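Researcher: Please translate sequence to C-alpha cells.
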Amino acid sequence: MFAASVALQLEDERRAVGFVFNLTLEAVERASKHPAGFLDRLKRDLDREVKRAGFDLPYWFCIDVDRDKRLHIHGAFLSHDMELPRLRELFRKAWGEWKGPGKDKQLWLSPLAVDDGWGSYSMRNQKRVAKIIGERTFTISQPLRREAQSAYNEIRRIMRSEQRRIS
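Model: Translation complete:
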C-alpha cells in the first residue's frame, strides 16, 4: 500500500486524491453474498463503472470499519480536477447512493498528502475488517500495481545504496 501511495504521488499530470466512501446497507449485503468475496464484488463493481465511463483510473482501496462496525472504503486514485464530478457519480453508481439527510457526507475527497499517512491510517483496522469480510481487505488496480512495483524497487535500491554508504 505504501508503494502504491508513493506511485500515485509521483504522477506529473494528474493529482493523487484520497477518498472515503460510506457504503449503503444494500452494497454491504450484496458484497457479503458474493461468491468471490466482499472485496472482489466491490472491485468488480468499480472496474465495471470505470470501463463504462472510459476512464484510466489507477487506484487502491481498502475496507475499513468504525467502532459501530460500519464498513466503509478508504482509498486513493489519480485524477484531473475536472474529472472529479464525474468520478463522484461513478463511485455512487458502483457502490450505491445514500438517500435523504447526510447524502452529501457519503463521499469525501481530498488531495493526497506527500507523506504516507493516508495509506497507514486506511490500513489500521485490517485485522478487525478481516474478521468481518475475510482475509482480502485491500486491492490495487493493475495499472497502479505495476507503478507501485517500480516505486518499491526504486525505494529498495535507494535504501540499499544508503546502507552500503553508512557501513
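Researcher: Any highlights?
Model: The chain has a mean pLDDT of 90.
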